[in-house]
Amino acid sequence: MSKNRKDDHINIAKSFKKKSNMFDKILLEGTDLPDLSMDDIDLSTEFLGMKVPYPFYINAMTGGSEKAHKINEFLSKIADHFNLPMVTGSQSIMFKDPSSIDSFKVIRNNHKGIIVGNINPNMTLEQAQVAVSTIQANALSIHLNVIQELVMNEGDRDFRLWSNHIESVVKHLNKPVIVKQVGLGLSLKTIQKIKTLGVKYIDVSGSGGTSFIDIESTRSAKDYSYLNDFSIDTAQALINLKNEKDLEIYASGGIRHPLDVIKSLILGAKACGLSKWFLDLTDLEFAAAVKKVEEFIEDLKKIMLILGVSSLKDLKQVTYNIV
Ligand SMILES: Cc1cc2nc3c(=O)[nH]c(=O)nc-3n(C[C@H](O)[C@H](O)[C@H](O)COP(=O)(O)O)c2cc1C
């Protein structure tokens, strides 16, 4: 990825406004007799098999430019402050431009907690190992983005090695590997294939938030918005996977506020990734950003209390209506 492309993505993603999505159609019932206090609420869970205090994380965004370095520096300090897992942006650029390495290393310099590397499936097992070791990552994410590549003039056109690379990385990396989309949603067809490759963790990363079709359409001034037809809303992607037993499922794409997190967990997600929400925090002073995350955590607890539920595992029993 070119340095400018990364900066374009940041600027264009920031300019998009919040929109309605399928989480708005999922309605929950509250109770005025929860028999609980705020102190009873426990938000702790596991992320890729590792203990974490909260069910959300900073999802993949950036690296490779000066602007990306600053964003990673800011967000990794937030991640460290709250012990949130942080997924890096695509590390592919490290292999083309070694000067970009520091914009990824800065994350480990600031954050003692869980870091997840990020590559595309063109990368070989050896490159995946380098990506992980460079930032001492605890896990690796691999992003699938065929439509994004195809709508970019400079994007990939040959996807023959993707499945083989994923299979080999999952088998030999010796770290948890999560396969994610980039905001258009993993289709059931993709997920069936992913399972045959040995993958255990997926982030559906559906539509309803950042759309790379819209970002690339803005960059190239060619309107590809009709391809959003292929996208799968995050809430719908979770509902489609209701009976899935072999995979641990993570949710991202259009998680706008704490209620979207709670709805995702009710729909079966283990935890939620937020990109745009955290990107918007980078406009603030550090103390103001910390306050926003504190409020987010407090509001997660408030919603649990409204539902009369004290632990995340009990959310799975909460019923919902789709309107
Ligand atoms: C500026 C920006 C850059 C991104 N770059 C990457 C990337 O390098 N690798 C990746 O896996 N996903 C990338 N994503 C996709 C996000 O991880 C996420 O899947 C998507 O933005 C949907 O989440 P959101 O609606 O909370 O933004 C990027 C998102 C944004 C906003």
Summed up:
The protein contains 14 helices and twelve strands. The protein has helices at 3-15, 66-82, 92-96, 102-110, 125-134, 146-151, 162-172, 188-196, 212-220, 234-240, 258-266, 276-281, 286-307, 312-315; strands at residues 26-28, 45-47, 50-52, 56-58, 86-87, 115-119, 139-143, 177-180, 201-203, 248-252, 272-274, 320-322.
Q: Beta-strand level of the residues, as a percent range?
A: 5-15%
Unreliable stretches: none
Q: Termini, distance in Å? A: 41 Å
> Helix/strand-derived class?
alpha/beta
Tell me how many strands there are: 12
Q: For this structure, what is the CATH class?
A: Alpha Beta
Describe the largest sheet: 8 strands, parallel
Instruction: Summarize model confidence as the mean pLDDT.
Output: 96
Strand arrangement in the largest pleated sheet: 4-11-10-9-8-7-6-5
User: Taking Cα atoms only, what radius of gyration do you get, to the nearest Å?
Assistant: 19 Å
Helix content: 40-55%
**What are the bound molecules?**
flavin mononucleotide
CATH topology: TIM Barrel
Our count of helices gives 14
Q: In the CATH hierarchy, what is the architecture at level 2?
A: Alpha-Beta Barrel
Number of domains: 1
Q: Helices and strands, in N-to-C order?
A: HEEEEHEHHEHEHHEHEHHEHEHHHE
Looking at the structure, what is the overall shape?
globular
Please, what is the CATH homologous superfamily? Aldolase class I
